[in-house]
Amino acid sequence: MLKGIDSRLNAEVLFALRAMGHGDALVIADTNFPSDQVSRSTVLGELLRMDNLTAAEAAEAVLSVMPLDTFVDDFAGRMEMVDAKDEVPPVQAEVQEVIDTAEGRSRPMIGIERFEFYDRAREAYAVIQTGERRFYGCFMFRKGVIPPEE
Question: Is residue 132 in some structural domain?
Fold first, then answer.
């Protein structure tokens, strides 16, 4: 255990989050996402796991240490529902609440069409598979920067 670090973050996830640079993308995926196959194409090249967590719990842990790149529109994205791209299911609403809390204000995610999401995920730095069983529990976060102290 480490002081001040969310205990839900395992060593492999912490390594990847620390290694990521500004602008790199991280995927947090549900159990139905082809995480193993997609992760082989990422920068990290291997799958990270947070199997015992929901998507919102994993996002909360990740965003406790990783800043979002709010200088770009795609700082956070959600996989759009097929044939209902504007619908936001409860799993996505929960993650949106986590983002808003982490940012201290409302910062809406963009919607990403399903197959575009897969393509973007293959170009991400890493994929974390969660234990989320609800459909469309797939998200993409772009790493931001930590400003210098005043």
Answer: yes
- 90 Rama sector, left if φ>0, alpha if ψ -120 to 50, beta otherwise: alpha
For residue 4, being part of any structural domain is answered with no
The whole-model pTM stands at: 0.95
Side chain identity at 134, as an amino acid letter? R
- 26 within domain boundaries: yes
Tens of pLDDT along 100-146? 999 999 999 999 999 999 999 999 999 999 999 999 999 999 999 99
Assigned token pair, 150: 């005043």
Tell me which residue range forms the domain holding 36.
Answer: 11-142
| Domain CATH number, residue 49 | 3.40.1650.10
Q: Which residues are catalytic?
A: 22, 69, 118
Order of all β-strands in the sheet with 25-29: 48-50, 126-130, 25-29, 139-142, 76-79, 110-112
Domain contains 73: yes
pLDDT tens by residue, 43-70? 999 999 999 999 999 999 999 999 999 8
